[in-house]
Amino acid sequence: MDLRQLRYFIAIAEYGSFSEAAARLRVAQSALSRQIGALEQELGVALFERHARGVTITPSGTLLVERARRVLDEVAEAQAEVMAQARLPSGEAVIGTTSTTSRMLYGPLAERFTREFPAVHLRFVEGVPYQLLEGLDTGRIDVAVMVDPDPRAGQILEPLVSEQVYLIGPRGAPGMPEAACTIESLRRIPLILLPRPAGSRVRLDHLAAEVGIVLQISHEVANVDVVKDFVARGLGFALLPHSSIMPYVTENRFAAVPLTGVLITRTMVRRAERPPSAAVAVLMDAIRDEMARIIAAGEFGGPAGAGTPA
User: Fold this and answer.
1) Are 276 and 288 spatial neighbours (Cβ–Cβ below 8 Å)?
2) Is 148 left (phi over 0), alpha (psi -120 to 50) or beta?
3) Low-confidence ranges of the chain (pLDDT < 50)
4) Which DSSP symbol is given to 238?
């Protein structure tokens, strides 16, 4: 018994005629008759009663037709699954981000790739900006999500979302403004900032230079969580985006006021001379999807609790 015999058998059962089944299947009627005869001989039963008007299926044939349909359906489903699997992207894709972005993206990306792209080996890198840029240059990182990276030759920058920057400090701390402040008002405030070449720090330095002030930096710290710890200890004030500080503000651990006109933009970066592989292409699409989901959840702030797509 083989699949071809089962297909022929089901066609004859459905059309009630060897000649009609042969025409629909586009095979010679003699070949059809030989295959069904061989099947009946193998099973030791008659599957059809032949008569002048065609054929009538026997009780044994009725039993077989249901099982045969089930077998062919299973085979078709298996073929579809195997072919779909073969079309799925495979290989390795490497994403690099800073610590704040990794906490937002890495878990959801890992879940999505496990579910939808099991043939892709997704690797995660976390580092400060110069490490991410070095990884992009050497090819160890395929895609990076960075804050306000400076445009560089050979890189493609795709802005994903912009969010408001806030001045934060302990509640009731002397020198903490009561309302939105400007860059000029930071002139005498001790600041705890990320070191260069962090994109947010480079932007702040440029803005300070434009208005002719020198920022008073009490500490430079490369980790956002440590920056917030320093603020909680009363060691100074910090400038951080909405997504980094709002849980602390809602818990009344920090006071926060917006820094007027100052936004940061999270940007996807990749090398221009390396076209993305299929695995990297689906990674980039997944990053866009996850950032859109985070925006919709209001984690980046913005009007009505929604983020501001860049």
Assistant:
1) no
2) left
3) 303-306
4) E
* Termini Cα distance of the chain: 62
CATH 3.40.190.290 for the 91-309 domain, yes or no: yes
Prediction pTM value: 0.67
What would the CATH number be for the domain defined by 3-87? 1.10.10.10
User: What integer pLDDT is reported at residue 175 of this predicted model?
Assistant: 85
Where are the domains positioned within the chain?
3-87, 91-309
Task: Please name the residues in contact with 172: beta carbons below 8 A apart, sequence gap of 6 or more.
Answer: 255
Question: pLDDT digits over 57-71, tens only?
Answer: 999 999 999 999 999
pLDDT of residue 82: 67
Q: What is the largest CA-CA distance in the chain?
A: 106
- 136, 108, 110, 131: which is closest to 268 by C-alpha? 136
| H or E, element range at 208 | helix 199-210
Q: Residue 75 phi/psi, 5° resolution? A: -65, -45
Q: For 112-127, how does the pLDDT look when each residue is reduced to its tens digit (9 = 90+)? A: 999 999 989 999 999 8
- Could you give the CA distance from residue 219 to residue 230 in angstroms, rounded to a whole number? 9
